[in-house]
Amino acid sequence: MDVVIAGIASGLLFASILISVGCFVVFQMYRNNVIWVVNLFKDTTASKVIYPIIIFLNPTMAILGVIFGFIFILIDSQISIKILGSPNIIYTFVVIGFSLISFIFLYIISPKYWRSFLGIFITFDAIFGWLIPLLSSN
User: Fold this and answer.
1) Confidence check: pLDDT of 65 > 90
2) Which of 21, 89, 111, 136 has the fewest CB atoms in 10 Å of its CB?
3) CA distances (Å), 16 to each of 27, 33, 97, in order?
4) Which domain holds residue 64?
5) Is the pTM of this model over 0.90?
């Protein structure tokens, strides 16, 4: 049960950070006249764009947190190497690998905003790679 609570709490924490940073990045894109963002806001208001994202993101990240929690339990039951402040470094590297692949994909799509993406993925690694194991470990 600890892993479920840790996963939900971590997922909601990440969703809150992602929504905040995501709104800032969208504002930067709008200010820099990125075509698809400018076109998105021609016909609609910001609240009609942001609210559905918030409604989708919160439960999705909570579920993702639970999934990562169960992945941690699965890996931890097989191999447990405690290093770098992580209860299981193998699990942490799995999370970092997932994050790195996602970062590269977003970097290819929009290289101008790599700093914002990097910040999001470092936060992702910290929350899902270290916080979930720390909260769910005995």
Assistant:
1) yes
2) 111
3) 17, 26, 22
4) 2-136
5) no
